[in-house]
Amino acid sequence: MRIVIAEDSALLRAGLIRLLHDEGHEVVASVGDGPALVDSIVRHRPAVAIVDVRMPPGFRDEGLRAALEARSRVPGTAVLVLSHYVEERYATELIEQSAEGVGYLLKDRVADVATFMAAIHQVAAGGTVFDPEVVRQLLARSRRAARLNELTAREGEVLALMASGGSNAAIAEQLHISDGAVEKHISSIFGKFGLEATDNSQNRRVVAVLSYLEQR
Hints:
By secondary structure, the chain is an alpha/beta fold. Helix content is 57%, strand content 14%.
């Protein structure tokens, strides 16, 4: 199998090359930045590209951006993303472009050679492979989004004002309702988000606001 590797760590890059070579695969290019990844995929048309999310110069999402660009220029390119952390937004973007031939593994999985190699083969064959932890967090995000949809229009207004830093009194004044009504709306929001009354009130407020902001 012909493989392209994009990883800014020279040590990890060398380790991946050795591992893949020992497993009988050909690494046709190994690069350390996004533009070189795109060029390598266009030039070599590999069976799969193994890509780190965070690469030079900004170490944010350059690797993923390059992989998405490469897939748009060479449709059907299989991409297996490696990351130290679960990046929910990046995983979602990868799926949204095309769910075929994509994978997202945490770098810890590389230590399990059998699992790692199985993922490469599955992605190269057009399958989808996601780390169990990535799946867990994506499902949690989906549940949070569903809870937002359960809010009434007024509860949505109250939560939006909470997110902007408004106190209960300020929210009541802006919406022309009583303080008691605001408290009832907030209590209902907490209930729909599964935040127990036994939890710290300020913590519940923070969790609710974060859930709102994540869906903006």
